[in-house]
């Protein structure tokens, strides 16, 4: 307790922001994230108000570790949506970035300057006020923090139009392991700038601000909607969908995501009974009529949808409407992901979807996938960040969700998602996994998240942070690799309960 008091006292004298411990309300809000499964208790939480506060905190911890036999860990929290909880730690310091939420828009350059404590909802609201015809390439769930999203590549509903979130970062200001502040871009420390765009979260430096290119929307109100099919029709629908989105004239302005889970019965929406359905979510970055023209080949196919709902909305309005449905919202969760190539939504994949969703332990669980390609694939190169799977088409995410008040349900739900992923990866010919859905149980995660870039990322780590100040269980250079269960054995869940190896 004496040591805790000393750390609080020291940092309180050094920074302008707040330094709080477990007895304070601000501490409790900082350690709660969007996953009731994860609980960690840092020694203190630092809430900086500017870049200097962050730099002083990092230097304090670095000096402490240099002079002490006991290492003090430091992690940073933005939106709290990282399902594995690596933004937290036990016994160390958490830097809560929420007050670094500055926003500015330069009309001449079309660029946003954003503090890394922002969440996407606040950025959307700000830009809608100052430049309503401009749009950031941001998260589909408005409550997600911009930092984790951008530093992990960032798939957006408009990535097919404008690229990944990280593709649109023009500069990034970071605090390095020695406490110095540096602004990175393609001319200043380009190797670190490259690594931070796709592998930046918790690995090299603490990001405090970015300059982000905003994009002009192709219609003030986009054509958005949902097409819902009955469970029994899924295989036929996916067989057509798999070929249709690869047609030469399929526009990059159209993204068609998928969701398979329990929803209100489309034929009896007033009923409280939920049924398994397939939902295709459409986002067309253009006017309503052109979007409908694009969708007509799908809508004319048999089987017919059980429900069709198309709307004219701004993208932020749609994200508020649809994004909330995939949040954990205080429940417990475990997430796994696959990245797969074009035409990989095969009958075998449809069979795996059906097999595992029928036996899901919780009706709250689902599988959802991102539709990639277009600008993300065609307009950017290897120099534009370390996302290794530009040619991918689908990113299915298996999301096990259960009641946090029933911790005994954890193993059953985790094992369900684990087995689902293993079969889905085989059926789809998976080429990787998505770092922003980081999974502590993923075997050979280094190659699955970073592919051919991993060795280069390790070299940059050794140059920029040779002592491993920025560290976590699945950080760049970590030797941690979980073991798959042995035949007849049980799955080791211990990696889910820690943030460091």
TrEMBL record:
It is an enzyme of class 1 (oxidoreductase). Residues 38-217 form the FAD-binding PCMH-type domain. One of its GO terms (molecular function) is FAD binding. Its EC number is 1.5.3.6. Keywords: FAD, Flavoprotein, Oxidoreductase. The keyword Flavoprotein applies. Residues 481-501 are annotated as: Disordered. Belongs to the oxygen-dependent FAD-linked oxidoreductase family. This is 6-hydroxy-D-nicotine oxidase. The lineage of its organism: Bacteria, Pseudomonadati, Planctomycetota, Planctomycetia, Planctomycetales.
């Amino acid at each position: 307790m004496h040591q805790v008091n000393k750390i609080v006292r020291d940092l309180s004298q050094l920074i302008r922001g707040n330094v709080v411990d477990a007895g304070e309300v601000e501490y409790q809000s900082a350690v709660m994230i969007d996953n009731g499964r994860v609980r960690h208790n840092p020694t203190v939480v630092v809430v900086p108000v500017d870049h200097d506060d962050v730099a002083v905190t990092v230097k304090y911890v670095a000096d402490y570790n240099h002079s002490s036999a006991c290492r003090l860990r430091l992690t940073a929290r933005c939106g709290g949506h990282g399902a594995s909880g690596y933004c937290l730690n036990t016994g160390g310091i958490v830097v809560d970035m929420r007050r670094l939420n500055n926003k500015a828009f330069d009309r001449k350059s079309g660029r946003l300057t954003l503090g890394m404590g922002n969440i996407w909802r606040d950025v959307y609201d700000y830009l809608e006020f100052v430049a309503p015809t401009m749009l950031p390439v941001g998260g589909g769930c408005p409550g997600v923090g911009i930092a984790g999203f951008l530093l992990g590549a960032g798939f957006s509903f408009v990535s097919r139009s404008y690229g990944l979130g990280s593709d649109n970062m023009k500069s990034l200001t970071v605090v390095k392991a020695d406490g110095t502040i540096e602004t990175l871009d393609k001319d200043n420390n380009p190797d670190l700038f490259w690594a931070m765009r796709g592998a930046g979260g918790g690995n090299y430096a603490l990001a405090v601000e970015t300059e982000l290119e905003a994009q002009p929307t192709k219609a003030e109100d986009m054509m958005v909607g949902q097409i819902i099919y009955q469970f029994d029709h899924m295989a036929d629908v996916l067989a057509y969908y798999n070929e249709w989105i690869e047609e030469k004239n399929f526009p990059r302005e159209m993204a068609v995501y998928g969701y398979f889970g329990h929803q209100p019965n489309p034929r009896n929406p007033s009923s409280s009974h939920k049924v398994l359905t397939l939902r295709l979510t459409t986002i067309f970055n253009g006017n309503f009529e052109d979007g409908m023209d694009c969708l007509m080949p799908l809508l004319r196919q048999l089987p017919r949808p059980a429900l069709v709902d198309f709307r004219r909305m701004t993208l932020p309005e749609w994200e508020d409407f649809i994004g909330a449905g995939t949040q954990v919202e205080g429940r417990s969760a475990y997430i796994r992901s696959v990245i797969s190539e074009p035409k990989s939504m095969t009958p075998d994949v449809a069979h795996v979807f059906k097999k595992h969703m029928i036996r899901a332990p919780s009706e709250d669980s689902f599988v959802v996938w991102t539709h990639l390609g277009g600008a993300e694939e065609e307009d950017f190169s290897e120099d534009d960040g370390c996302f290794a799977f530009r040619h991918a088409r689908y990113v299915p995410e298996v999301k096990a969700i259960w009641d946090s008040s029933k911790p005994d349900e954890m193993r059953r739900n985790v094992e369900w998602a684990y087995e689902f992923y293993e079969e889905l990866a085989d059926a789809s010919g998976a080429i990787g996994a998505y770092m922003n859905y980081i999974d502590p149980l993923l075997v050979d995660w280094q190659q699955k998240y970073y592919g051919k870039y991993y060795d280069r990322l390790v070299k940059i780590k050794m140059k920029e942070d040779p002592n491993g100040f920025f560290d976590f269980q699945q950080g760049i250079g970590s030797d941690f690799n979980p073991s798959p269960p042995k035949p007849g054995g049980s799955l080791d869940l211990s990696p889910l309960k820690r943030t460091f190896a």
